[in-house]
Design a protein that fits this description.
Protein-Tyrosine Phosphatase, Chain A; 40% helix; alpha/beta; seven-stranded mixed beta sheet
């Protein structure tokens, strides 16, 4: 199966005994959901979400999120900052456009290191971590795929399959090309 076929295949969303958590926002409350989720746990304590959950500090508090990577940082995208989240959330902004021509590649390693360092912190308690963009399917998914490839030695196909167990994703074709280049680089 090729990458596009894997992405287009019916979702294999997990519903196994609460191993992963999915939430949608309803009436300003987090409510477990199976589809149309604003945020999903795609790896232990690693969530992918959209800007609605990222802009809701109460939801982040309920999820106990301590670190945020905003893959759509900027005035015309998702305005997050250290000031917005306050001292309880560590923030990392990536000013990425969801455009096939945007070079996300040079953010793959720094963001993967940032995520791993945060997940390794807190004396092994693995604080919950959110990676988000505007919709939560392209930029943020690409960052998480790169994280799994770099830090956990997954191939791109394995990383896509792993994330798709819990969240529908669809990185744009430019990000897929960059992830393929990363995959080839890591295979050497």
């Amino acid at each position: 199966m090729d990458i596009i076929s894997l992405l287009m295949s019916p979702s294999t969303l997990s519903s196994r005994g609460g191993e992963r958590r999915s939430y949608s926002l309803r009436a300003s409350r987090l409510v477990p959901s199976r589809s149309g989720n604003h945020v999903d746990e795609v790896w232990p304590n690693l969530f992918i979400g959209d800007m609605s959950v990222a802009n809701d500090r109460y939801s982040l508090w309920k999820l106990r999120i301590t670190h945020v990577v905003n893959a759509a940082h900027g005035k015309i995208h998702c305005q997050g900052s250290h000031d917005f989240y306050g001292p309880t959330v560590d923030y990392y902004g990536i000013p990425a456009d969801d455009s096939p021509s945007f070079n996300l590649f040079h953010y793959f390693s720094p963001s993967a290191e940032y995520i791993q360092k945060a997940l390794d912190s807190n004396e092994g308690k693995h604080p919950p971590f959110l990676v988000h963009c505007a919709v939560g399917v392209s930029r943020s998914a690409s960052i998480v795929l790169a994280y799994l490839m770099i830090q956990h030695h997954y191939s791109l196909m394995e990383a896509i399959s792993k994330v798709k167990e819990n969240r529908w994703i669809f990185p744009n074709r430019g990000f897929l090309r960059q992830l393929c280049a990363l995959d080839k680089q890591l295979q050497k």
